[in-house]
Amino acid sequence: MIFSKRSQAWGIDLMVAIGIFSVAIVVFFVYSMNQTNEARDTLEDLLYDGKTISNSLLSEGSPKDWNSDNVIKLGILDEGKINNTKLERFYDLSLSDYARTKTLFKIRTDYYFFLDEEMIIDGEDVVGIGKPGFDIEDIDEENIIKIKRFVIYNDKPVNAYFYVWR
Question: Would 5 be classed as within a structural domain?
Answer without folding.
Answer: no
